[in-house]
Structures are given as C-alpha cells and as structure tokens.
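Quick check before the chapter quiz. The format below is the same one you will see on the exam, so make sure you can read both the input and the output lines.
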Amino acid sequence: MKKLALVCFMMLSAFGAAFAQSDLQPLAIVKLNKNKSETVTVKQVKSRVLPYEKQLGRKLTVDERKQVLNTIIEEKLMLQAAVQDGISIPDSAVDQYFVQGMSQQLGVNVSEKELDDIVKQTQGMSLDELLQKQVGMNKVDYKATLKNQLMIQQYVVKAKQAEIQAVAPTDEEIRAFYDSNKASFVWNDMMKSFLVIVQKGDNIDASRQKANDLRNQLKDGKITNEQLVAKSKEENSGFQAGDLLLQKTEAIAARLGYSFADLRDLFGQKEGFITDIKETAQDFRFFKIGKKYDAKMLGIGDVVQPDTTITVYDYIRGNLGQQKQMQFVQMAAQQLANSLNTPENVDMKKKDAALDKLLSWEN
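Here is the expected output.
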C-alpha cells in the first residue's frame, strides 16, 4: 500500500511539473531592443486570456487566443520602441492618472489615501477586490498596465504629432452633431455658490468651531470669498473653499450630501444668503448663495456655462476633435505595431500545430 501511495505521489508530482513546464513554454521572443529581449510564455497569455473568458462567460477559441498572443507581442514591441525613443512615465504621473480615473468612476474627487475607505463604504469591498472584479488585476498590476498604455500612447503621439494635430471636425460635422443631439443641450436651473468645507480630522470639536468661525467672518463681512480661497491654499489650512456652479438635480443633491428638498430650498434663497453649517461623515460645510440662472434650451451659439466664453459650437468642436484624434491614434498605433512586427524583431518559437496545442489548454 505504501509503495502504491508513493507511485501515485510521484505520478502527481510529474504531472504538476509537466503542467508548470507547459506554462513556461516560450511562444515568442520580442527583440526589437537587442540588448533587452523579452519572452512571451504560455503563462503570460493565460493571465490575459482568463479575465476575458470570465467577462464573456465562455472559453476563447484557439484563434482568439492567438489574437491575444499577438496583442501581447505588439505591446512589447511598442514599449521597446518607446524606451528606445527615450520615453518614460514617472510613477507619480501614473498615480495621478489612476486616481483621476477612479474619481470619475466614483463620482467624487479623492486622493489615493482616501480611495480605499471610499470604495469600502460605497462598494462594500477593498480597492484590490473591486479592480480584480472589474479588470482581473490588483492595484499594483493595474498601475503597471496603465503605465505601459501611457508609454505606448505617448510614443504614438510623438511619432504622429503633425498628423494628429491636423485631424479636426468639419463645420458640417459640428452642425450635424448639434442637430441630431439638440435636445441634450439644455441648462437645468443653475446657481452659482461659494462652498466652504472644513475636514473633520482628529479633533471634531475644533473642526466644528473652525467652520463656525469661517462662516461668521464671511457673514459679517470680515473676510471676502477671494480671501477665504487664498487662506484655504495655505499649508495645513484644514479647509477648502471655492466657487461651485450647482444644477438643480437629484444627482447633485446626493453628491453634496443633501436631499433634493434641501437643494430646492437653497435655490429659493436670495443672493448673498449663507446657509447653516451641515455636518457630513467627513466634514463640516456651508454655502454662500450666488447668482441664479433659469433652465433653457441652448442654441449652437450659446455659451455652455454661465459667464464663460465657450459656446456650444466650440464644445462640440472640441469633443468631436478629441474623438477623431483618439480614433486616429488607435489606427496609427496599429499601423506602427504592424510595421514593427517583423521576423527580424519577433522570433516565433511555436507555430502552426505546435502553437495550437499549447493554446488549447483546459481551464
């Protein structure tokens, strides 16, 4: 019996070793940078394929897995080309881009330090768990991927700068977009306001007192909006202050921590009115009411926001221009990748039936 158990153990060990060796099989060597070639293994393809299969709810075909392999090869080619061209992205820029993206997704501007807490409060899971669920990566891996994407994008923009700048929507395209989306160009009831937020910090009573002091100074005319903004920018000020254009909507009320009825009451106050202090989970805040603007449909020559110079025409031109430039960058990236994907730069270690066999794994 002991001998049989030993034989079974040896067979299982051999199976595990064979499985591991299969995962480490080199499929291609990317060698655009002759001093720093990179190997693409079965394991790397699996790590990219499995999240796709999880999202789609099915296994990818062998041909689809080949497309994933080709994408990895092209990414490595573009990254090596970017490095050779002297392009680098500092980690601080990646961190900033990451936080901006997450802030947009959550609908609130946050620092990376605040991100974990807010995700736990709003999503009921850690940031790593959220990213794993959404994109199949933890934060470290997601940032590494983001850095690679930014490097490739910068390489393409640098290589095709003149062509990208020349891409622009025509007057006909701008007017056609306005005509087909006219109903979406509206002002809701809006109001300018001045918002002051005092973070609670470690001493809640002191923060509450600071909020009261700032409110009283503003109400009594001892300090102006502009002076408060300047003081808020001082080191360790403990508060934020600035102008805010509010729309009378449920979404805006929720973001401010107000009920819609509370927001309607704000809109009913006279210009110059200063609200009582409201306490939220993170801070104390109050508003000073400014000028109000009635809802209306916008013509193509109207400004998109009160007291600005950007018209609806300018806004559409800018957005269509960005879309066209992004499309051009994607097309240019593919063209550059195709031009780099040559036998001189890529040594395919597995082809045809041998490649099909390695990409036919069972999950």
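If your answer matched, good. The beta strands are 26-30, 38-41, 186-187, 190-199, 239-247, 278-279, 283-293, 296-297, 346-348.
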